[in-house]
Amino acid sequence: METKKFNIVSTQSNIDWVGRKVTGAHNGTIGIKEGSLLFDNDRLTGGRFVADTTSIKILDITDPATNAQFAGHLASDDFFSSAQYPEAIFNITSVNGAHIEGDLTIKNSTHPISFDAQINLSGDVMTASGIIVVDRTQYGMKFRSGSFFKDLGDILIYNDFELQVNITATAAKENVLA
What residues does the Lipid/polyisoprenoid-binding YceI-like domain cover (predicted)? Predict the structure, then answer.
């Protein structure tokens, strides 16, 4: 059995997010700071990646003042508390084919998450993508949640948000752990 480590290339990896509310949705990006994935005989077996919550961008709001206000709100304690918790971490706990299970830590709170991924391995380059659905209330993000506040009407924000994770990684130089 040959174990290979692939290091995530931050500049070629990112997370696209979508948050929905009664009246529509917002979308943007979050940078991936670092991470690595382990393969045994070309099969994903483990790994982790770190998202930089201070890098959250909003793509659908073009007015600079409104965009800055919304970005500040996402960074606040109502959502990611980015000053106190600048990183969110996903650790893979098991892999069964294309199905990945792991622990997602946001704001020092960890919960299990599972999703299906598309993984492509070609020589020393690996690409992977998958959609992770996260219940924000599990991580203390209760702002305008119908689970905690009544009669929100058209200002309600849905609890689930989607993360489309796109990763590119390259084989580590120190590989071949046999």
Answer: 5-170
Quote the CA–CA distance of 162 and 24 in Å, as a whole number: 14
pLDDT of 149: 40
The CATH number of 3-171 is 2.40.128.110
Interatomic CA distance for residues 21 and 109, integer angstroms: 24
Name the residue with tokens 């704001």: 107
pLDDT (average), residues 167-172: 94
Residue 56 to residue 74: CA distance in whole angstroms: 8
Q: Cα(158)–Cα(150) distance, rounded to whole angstroms? A: 13
Taking only the tens place, the pLDDT of each residue in 4-15 is 999 999 999 999
pLDDT for 158 equals 55
Say if strands 43-58 and 24-40 run parallel, antiparallel, or are unpaired: antiparallel
Q: In b/e form, how buried is each residue of 60-82, taking b as 16+ CB within 10 angstroms?
A: ebeeeeebeebbeebbeeebbbb
- Percent of the chain whose predicted confidence (pLDDT) is above 70: 85
